[in-house]
């Protein structure tokens, strides 16, 4: 009976160990412009698709021709996190360096 109780405690504890990604929004206002910075727990900040290097967009087009980039993020190491969706409705997250090489995270 004691083993069952301990096993149940570990099972419940392991489920709570997978916390959701925390998103913090910081707004900075200057005299003429307002800037919104989105910082996530994994240190990626959102950027527009136009700010992506040509090598990254070319890698997406080459390896996933039916994909569209929905959101893009970057970190201090010039790595990019891309949320993409395919024409068939599937979606996923890709990671690439600034040279368009895929990274496994």
UniProtKB/TrEMBL annotation:
Stated name of the protein: Beta-lactamase-inhibitor-like PepSY-like domain-containing protein
Signal peptide location: 1-19
SUPFAM superfamilies: BT0923-like (SSF160574)
Keywords assigned by UniProt, alphabetized: Signal
Statement: the UniProt record of this protein carries the keyword Signal: yes
